[in-house]
């Protein structure tokens, strides 16, 4: 690899998307570059300033990524392209896959955000096209490439989506992703599933008492509030209301208190279950949930699996777990329209909260339409 050239590794899915990124960086057609093939399915595009290594799509079965990083473990940039309708969860899965495949840390990879996205809303390393222009070494880009600010009108659309479909005003983006009111996240589940620990992970602080115990730690409904990515979130932690032996008066008190704490804001119910355990008491948990909060509750429910570290240790992805889980659990998942997230409360990170909040926002928006 020539040391006097900028080495850029381009990763992601969609050949046209990766080529469009090169075109945008060059401000010229990709045909002006010299081209050669290396490894199995990797293409090198090169001129006097850049060496672009365009890797195959992530679902292609080959060892090009592993071999490329063995040959050049320290490129100037590793850029991951994504579509305008990307999901945080899928992008994070791609980054973890690339990290494992290349043997490099996850922050090696920088996601190039579509023009419609803000650079501060995501748990992974990212930059806009404007930031990318500023990041590229100015002395090698040359005066002809100088830009005081990126001009969207001059940019080639990234991917098979047209430029106009990617462009939205800041006001439109804020309308789509933020709320003027609070959002209630209601934690529900059986004793020992990790409701309180999940609440603390969401809030980023230890608000709720939690510890290993054979007896219920949470005995009263509690709430705590925080701002997450500009959204005012109220988290409500509840005792186990699904216990068949619970006193009816106690059950009624807990349910009424929970509803009172929710006030009038939109509610999302987080049904907390352990990924590594499915009990007989959970088989009819949706019916118990509907008894407490009416039949529409399943349309407002996301299943939050705890003990994600058990899946991680077994090298099982969430998608594979959901596909292979036992029929009773699969039925519960289907009743909640397959809305699921997984938490590792022993290692709380912002990216798992971002994935949850993305699902929360999408679900509330769908209900408001």
From TrEMBL:
Subcellular location: Cytoplasm, Cytosol; Endoplasmic reticulum; Golgi apparatus; Mitochondrion
Keywords: Cytoplasm, Endoplasmic reticulum, Golgi apparatus, GTP-binding, Mitochondrion, Nucleotide-binding, Repeat
InterPro entries hit by this protein: G_AIG1, GIMA/IAN/Toc, P-loop_NTPase
Pfam families (alphabetical): AIG1 (PF04548)
Domain AIG1-type G: 180-369
Primary site of residence: cytoplasm
Family, per entry: Belongs to the TRAFAC class TrmE-Era-EngA-EngB-Septin-like GTPase superfamily. AIG1/Toc34/Toc159-like paraseptin GTPase family. IAN subfamily.
Task performed by this protein: Exerts an anti-apoptotic effect in the immune system and is involved in responses to infections.
Name of the molecule in the record: GTPase IMAP family member 8
Organism: Astatotilapia calliptera
Phylogenetic classification of the source organism: Eukaryota, Metazoa, Chordata, Craniata, Vertebrata
């Amino acid at each position: 690899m020539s040391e006097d050239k900028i080495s850029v590794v381009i990763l992601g899915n969609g050949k046209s998307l990766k080529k469009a990124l090169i075109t945008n960086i060059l401000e010229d057609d990709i045909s002006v570059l010299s081209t050669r093939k290396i490894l199995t399915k990797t293409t090198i595009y090169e001129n006097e300033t850049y060496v672009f290594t365009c890797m195959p799509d992530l679902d292609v079965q080959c060892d090009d990524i592993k071999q490329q990083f063995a040959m050049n473990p320290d490129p100037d940039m590793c850029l991951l392209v994504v579509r305008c309708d990307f999901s945080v969860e899928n992008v994070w899965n791609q980054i973890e896959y690339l990290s494992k495949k290349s043997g490099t840390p996850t922050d090696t990879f920088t996601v190039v955000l579509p023009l419609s996205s803000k650079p501060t809303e995501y748990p992974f390393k990212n930059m806009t096209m404007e930031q990318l222009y500023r990041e590229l070494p100015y002395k090698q880009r040359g005066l002809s490439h100088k830009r005081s600010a990126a001009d969207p009108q001059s940019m080639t659309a990234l991917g098979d989506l047209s430029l106009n479909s990617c462009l939205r005003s800041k006001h439109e983006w804020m309308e789509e992703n933020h709320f003027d009111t609070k959002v209630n996240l209601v934690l529900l589940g059986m004793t020992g599933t990790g409701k309180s620990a999940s609440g603390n992970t969401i809030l980023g602080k230890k608000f709720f008492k939690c510890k290993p115990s054979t007896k219920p730690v949470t005995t009263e409904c509690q709430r705590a509030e925080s701002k997450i990515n500009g959204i005012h979130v109220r988290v409500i932690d509840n005792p186990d209301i699904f216990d068949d032996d619970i006193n009816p008066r106690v059950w009624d008190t807990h349910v009424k208190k929970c509803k009172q704490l929710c006030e009038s804001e939109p509610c999302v119910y987080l049904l907390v279950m352990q990924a590594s355990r499915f009990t007989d008491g959970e088989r009819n948990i949706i019916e118990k949930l509907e008894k407490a909060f009416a039949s529409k509750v399943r349309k407002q429910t996301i299943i939050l699996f705890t003990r994600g570290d058990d899946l991680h240790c077994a090298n099982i992805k969430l998608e594979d777990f959901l596909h292979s889980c036992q029929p009773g659990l699969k039925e519960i998942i289907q009743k909640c329209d397959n809305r699921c997230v997984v938490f590792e409360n022993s290692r709380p990170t912002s990216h798992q909260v971002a994935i949850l909040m993305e699902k929360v926002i999408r679900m509330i928006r769908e209900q408001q339409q």
